[in-house]
Specification:
74 residues, four-stranded antiparallel beta sheet, 1 helix, 35% strand, elongated
């Protein structure tokens, strides 16, 4: 049974409030990750989201997860 393509992304903010995104594309068993900010790409056989997070931290100092950021009520 053929598998379709799928994509997902990991996004983080840096200390200046800029968003950095690494997109993950899966075609069959091949997973490719690429950074929208700097153009970095890599094949990732295992744990592509972990490699994406590592790149965002090392290359862009982007560590703030927008999905986990909550604004306190006033």
């Amino acid at each position: 049974m053929p598998r379709g393509d799928s994509t997902s992304k990991v996004s983080r903010w840096d200390g200046h409030g800029r968003e950095h995104v690494v997109r993950m594309r899966r075609t069959g068993v091949l997973r490719t990750i690429g950074c929208d900010t700097c153009g970095w790409t890599r094949n990732a056989r295992f744990l592509p989201w972990l490699k994406a997070e590592e790149h965002l931290t090392a290359a862009h100092q982007a560590t703030v997860d927008p999905a986990r950021t909550r604004h306190p009520s006033r």
